[in-house]
Amino acid sequence: MTPFGLLDWSDLVFAGFLRDPSVNEAVASAAGAFAVLGAVAALVVLTVKGWWRPLWSGWLTSLDHKRIGIMYVVLGLVMFARAIAEASVMRAQQMAALGEPGFLSAEHFGQLFTTHGTIMIFFVAMPLLTGIINFVMPLQIGARDVTFPLVNAVSLALTAAGAALLMVSLVVGRFSTGGWSGYPPFTGAAFSPGEGVDYWIWAVTLSSLGSTLTGMNFAVTIYKERCPGMHLFRMPLFTWTALCTSILMIFAMAPLTVATLMLALDRYAGFHFFTAGSGGDMMNYANLFWLFGHPEVYILILPAFGVWSEVFSTFSGKTLYGYTSLVIATMCIAVLSFTVWLHHFFTMGQAASINAVFGVATMLIGVPTGVKVYDWLLTMVRGRIRFRVPLILGCYFLATFVIGGLTGVLLANPTVDYGTHNSLFLVAHFHNMLIPGLLFGMFAAIHFWFPKAFGFRLHEGLGVLSAFLWMGGFLCAFMPLYALGLMGGMRRMAQLPEGPFGPLLAVALLGALMIAAGFAVFVLQLWWSVRHRDRLAVPHGDPWDGRTLEWALPAPPPEWNFAVLPEVDRRDPFDAAKLAGIAYALPDRYEDIEMPANSAVAPALGAAAFAVAFGLVWHIWWLVAFGLAAALAAIVARSFVTETTRTIPAAHVRQVTEGWRSIARVATPCPRRAEATGANRGRARPQQ
Amino acid sequence: MSDVTATRHPGLNLNHTDRETHDRAESVMFGFWVFMMSDLVLFAVLFATYAAQSVHGIAGGPAPAEIFELKSTLWQTLVLLTSSFTMGLAALALKYRDDRRRLVLWLLVTAALGGTFLYLEGADWLRMARDHGAVPQVSGFLSIFYALTGTHFLHVSAAMVWIGVMLVQIGRFGLKPEVKLRVMRLAILWHLLDVVWIGIFTFVFLFGVVQ
Ligand code: HEM
Ligand SMILES: [Cu+2]
């Protein structure tokens, strides 16, 4: 063995193409080349523009929850680009493979659905929602930061290290073919030798460690950092969903960590947790994985529910209908989500009575979710509705999410599930929940809070265009899959039988391309809006006539968020303050503010974690030892640092606050109907 | 904060012996309790796996009753319980006496007991492997047995490193608020590991021998 473990030049994806110049290898090499070029381009831009220093001191070492949140979202968007590209390639392959082999090998197709699923869940959905909670939640509860800012940065670094591992796997070696759920014994050493499954294990483990820490941090923040008067039942609904999601993270990530580590012990050290024979039992894996996996889908959807709640109420110009019922429904969903995991394997041989219990429990979740849908609808009733991008997506969400929910109730019936398990019907169902629910929720959140984060709105017309591409694309891409599934099409197939599948698959391919086009328009929208940011600027900070505390701040908010911690005595406090005409009053005294100082510990831990994971994948043991030692050293060294905060003098706080408020107070308020025009500078004219 | 008799977190509060640190303790200690909770979930999952595989996963290898030896395990238990007691004395020294010597002394005793525990447990593993060929690669039961006890072992080892770091910091910084809060969290972890061990002793060893 060389010092580089199992690693060899022939593991480079390009070497595969030289050995066998087929279309299959060409696709793999192109993806690898794309990753390399992307990385090189990023380095060149950073160097040419001289952005290294600002990147390091302004972002990578920053402990500001707002910046960490933005970095999470950027990570999620970059990974999203890769995962949609993979989805389109899969669709193209299935289209090309009717009755012939198509252009991808079955093993390559397996890698594609595995990376697509793994990326979408762990490196798109989780970073997006974590980022948005990070940015918004402390502002909504009137806090200056999360309770543990450094832990927050470490969570991001671990997640980014996992994502980096996935990107490296495009160039060096192969990825797992075991699907995002990685079931053994297929993923065990006997059936999947080589580095693929190891890549999957360590990427997922890093991400799950990061999410565990995030969940604890958010929960403690919401319990302990609320401003005076912010009782639990005065919290904005988004914060409520953030709390429930965090609690789910605390409880649900551990089973995943245990499952992946046990799988690793099986593979590396010959243990028998899940092997076939010697007392291994893969059903234990299925239980552990879904003990995480089902709560996970609620970790994903609850924050989106929170976003929708804010969106419906803000763009209807009304308080949220049924606040208490929405809170209770959220809590019910969070609790119930731990009682249904078995519905992911109804067909794996337990007694019919057990299936029945879990089937009924699953259907029960439909009840609180239904309550929410009615609450949102009733929020819009008699509201003055403005169809900005978030609300357009929101209305679409209401219609399509109900369809997805209904097919979920169908699948919850074990007798039905026996017919539809692992079919394209299931694929249609979960994309039906994840795309209109979670993904559109995250894009709605981006449109909604982007002006708060950067001080300018996103171009409205391009936003509408991309929303319509997504909405049409989703219908084309996934509605046919319900039919295909009922016609007998199974999931994870590189090739479907010839016959009636062709036309519907073509529609599905079209849909995937439309979704990809919608994303391209979104990127264009970002680019255009950055170029024309002066025209779109909303420095006064309240572009949508917002109701909650975050809108009381300038855009972008200062590092310390609130010059003086606010005191609230009701829900929607900012709305009330605007109506009372006291929204931009000046505080009468200022104090020095202590904020966390920058720290290089998080990037160091991220780098160490990546080194450990990469070393484990390729059996480079010295790298593993070195990474672990570095991580331990970083943690211990940090505990000896005495200056962990930085004081911002009261005079500076005063200057910034009064500079902003004195302008905001005299700014011309913009009526709601003109909010999508240049007249909107971020001071809203409140309406009763 | 006005009310000095308030309890800010479960466990030993500093309260009027050190009001300043007492006030800062609230979110830090609460955060640590939450961390412990997620650690307990980890152990719960391991216990659940043990429950399944210690019955179904023997696969012709040695069964629990054949390899466990209660005498050694009982000693491990006693040593660890005593260490929890001495950790409690360390916490009392931290709270009531601004007496670094006493605190350091009890931390040293705790570390020595912890080290003894690790030694005894390691020796027990070696015995099982030597006398019965009971290594984790033999069966599903042994895999989870070593994973469960090994996870606990790793936790105790990490806590030992933590004690070491604390000893250095007490020497270097004295009893600054940060140092105090760290010792308090260390104590929580140490007691929790004790609780987990009681679970292991009962559920793995006692039940295992009875069957
Ligand atoms: C954006 C448009 C999307 C398209 C066109 C798309 C397409 C696909 C396709 C073709 C598959 C493989 C189906 C099969 O096994 O036959 C798949 C699987 C999957 N997708 Fe998507 N998807 C999209 C978005 C998402 C999103 C947003 C998520 C989650 C947040 C997601 C999560 C998954 C998962 C978990 C799998 C299963 C992977 C596995 O079999 O292990 N997808 N998707
Ligand atoms: Cu489920």
Question: Quick summary of this structure?
Answer:
The complex is a heterodimer of chains A (688) and B (211). Chain A is 66% helix and 1% strand. Chain A is mostly helical and 688 residues long.
Could you characterize what this model shows?
- Chain A has about 700 residues and is mainly α.
- Chain A has one domain: Cytochrome C Oxidase, Chain A.
- Chain A is built from 20 helices and two strands.
- Chain A has helices at about 15-20, 25-50, 50-60, 65-95, 105-140, 150-170, 195-225, 235-270, 280-315, 325-335, 350-380, 390-410, 415-420, 425-455, 460-485, 500-530, 575-580, 600-620, 620-640, 650-665; strands at about 595, 645-650.
- Chain A has a two-stranded antiparallel sheet.
- The model of chain A has no long low-confidence stretch (mean pLDDT about 95).
- With about 210 residues, chain B is mostly helical.
- In chain B, about 80% of the residues lie in helices and about 0% in strands.
- Bound molecules: protoporphyrin IX containing FE and copper (II) ion.
What is the CATH H-level superfamily of chain A?
Cytochrome c oxidase-like, subunit I domain
Radius of gyration of chain B: 19 Å
Number of helices of chain B: 6
Task: Give the uncertain stretches of chain A in residue-range form.
Answer: none
- Total beta strands of chain A: 2
Bound molecules: protoporphyrin IX containing FE, copper (II) ion
CATH fold-level assignment of chain A: Cytochrome C Oxidase, Chain A
Count the strands of chain B?
A: 0
Indicate the CATH architecture of chain B. Answer: Up-down Bundle
Span of the ends, CA to CA of chain B: 56 Å
CATH fold naming of chain B: Four Helix Bundle (Hemerythrin (Met), subunit A)
* N-to-C order of helices and strands of chain B: HHHHHH
Q: How many angstroms separate the termini of chain A? A: 75 Å
Number of domains of chain B: 1
CATH superfamily of chain B: Cytochrome c oxidase, subunit III, four-helix bundle
Biggest beta-sheet profile of chain A: 2 strands, antiparallel
Overall form of chain A: globular
Write down the CATH class of chain B. Mainly Alpha
Strand content of chain A: under 5%
Rg of chain A, alpha carbons: 25 Å
CATH uppermost class of chain A: Mainly Alpha
Family (chain A): Belongs to the heme-copper respiratory oxidase family.
Main location (chain A): membrane
Domain Cytochrome oxidase subunit I profile (chain A): 50-569
Transmembrane segments (chain A): 26-48, 68-85, 119-137, 149-172, 199-223, 235-265, 285-308, 320-342, 354-377, 389-412, 424-450, 462-484, 504-528, 597-614, 620-641
